[in-house]
Structures are given as C-alpha cells and as structure tokens.
Design goal:
Length: 299
Amino acid sequence: MEQGKDPMSDTRPGLGKAEGIPLPKSTCNEWDRIQCFQAKSDDLLLCTYPKSGTTWIQEIVDMIQQEGDLEKCQRASVHHRHPFIEWARPFQTLAGVDQADMMPSPRTLKTHLPVQLLPKSFWTANCKFIYMARNPKDCLVSYFHFQRMNKTLPHPGTWEEYLEIFMAGKVAWGSWYNHVKDWWKAKDTYRVLYLFYEDIKKDPKHEIQKIMQFIGKQLDMATLDKIVHHTSFEVMKQNPMVNRANAPLSVMDQSISPFMRKGMVGDWKNHFTVAQNEWFDEDYRKKMSDTDLMFTMEF
C-alpha cells in the first residue's frame, strides 16, 4: 500500500471543479442551482475559508442574535441553524440552497466560496457579510486533520504531501491565498466585516462588540460576558450542538481526530519542520506580495 494512503481512500469521493476552483463533486453537481440562489437584502452571510473558525463565528453570531439565550441557541445543531449554501450530498434530502429557501427572513447563511464563485444575487442584494480569516499555517494543520477524519473529502495523504497540495491550492475551495486576498478587496466595495481568528482569541470581548455593532445589536455587559464564556473553545468543545458529536461515522470519524481539535494559535509549530517552515515562508511572501493583508502566526 502506498505510504500515507488510507485503505478506505478509494471509497472517498474526489474533487470536481467549478470555474477552475476545486470543490466537492456533490457541490459541482448542484452548481447551476447554487449559482441561481436568490439572496435577500436582509441576509447575513458568514464567509470563511475552510478550517478558519467557521463554527466559532456561527456560534458567536447566533448568541448575539438570540441575545445570549442559551436555550434558543440549543434549538438545533449549528449546521442546521445556518444553511451552508453550497452544501450538497448525494444521499441528503435537502441541499443547502433548499434549506435556505425554506428559512424565514432575516436569514443567517454560511459559505466557504471564494468571491468569484459566490451567487451574484448576494452582491446585487447588497447583503451584509462577515468574513473570518485565519493564519495559513494553523489553517493548513487544521484542514489536514479534518481531511483525515472527514470521509466526504479526499484523504490528505502524508503531512509532507498535504503541505504541497495546500500550498498549490489543490484542496477543496481552492487557494487559501486568493480566498483571503479577494475577500479583503471586497470589503472596499461591499458591506464586509473582515475578522481575524487570532484577534478573537486574543481579545474576544472587543471583537464580539465589533460584530454586535455590525449586526446592529445592543447588549449589556453581562450578556456580552456570557457570550464570551459560552463561545470559548473549552465550552464549545463540550456542546453537542456545535461539536458534531452526532455526526454519523460514515461522514466523520472523530476517533481519528476530533471535529473541535485544539482551537489554538501556533499549533503549526508542532507539525512544520524548520525546512518546511522556511519553504512555506518564502512561498507565502511571494503570494502575499500584492496585498497589505497581514496575519499573526503566533502569540
């Protein structure tokens, strides 16, 4: 058996492409329907590159919208509260666009799509967008472990192989570099609140206040403190409505790696060799030379 290959990898679906960007094949099969999705002006779209704190920003936003009411935030799993617009699975009754269409307004929706693949109606409806970015090294590490356990994505191979695949943008949802840079540009034209994973880690209260302001919610300090507490990694890891504890084994095998793994800044140092880090840094400098976007790699 080839090194790094999962014996089960043959049964895993491969990736397709939409306009040159790698995406899950099931998403590509629904592409026309996804592109025709009708956004509404009061939609809030939560946007992230995979493994950049998506579940975290979803829970923060939901707790703000529910004004800290824990019971309301437990009404359904986080992935049912915010339809994932490009979500499509062959055996699933409802695609993400169907879930969104059935939802009453105002809707909070989620996507991993890069700017150029977003259904055009989101731009024309002038929706609000919250974009959450995470430094590429931690994002890569998280994505590697996620692909090890998530059977709906190709097996990542060895760490060395995956490092190369990620840097080349040959993973689902494409290049991290283009994704973060293009959304950074979009904020100059559209109503985009651009957030950083590392900033929320460092000063959650300040960043959550920023989100509240953007959403148009005013909450007292006691409620804010409650939201900070309940959206901490330690508390969320124990919350079955966000930790995917109920995901079927056919989708996620959390004995390989938990869905909520470490949620820290700088875990990449436990994975990169010195040579790999130097190689990555050089490549990063080239790819980020055309932007003023800056990332915190460690505290």
